[in-house]
Amino acid sequence: MFEFLILYFAVFRRFKKISVELTDEAIIYNNIKGTTVIPYNEITEVKFMLVILSYILPIVVFVICEIILGRNIAKKSNRENFYVPNRDKALEAKVYIRAYVIYSIIYVIGAVVLLIA
Question: What is the Cα 7 distance to its own chain's centre?
Answer without folding.
Answer: 11
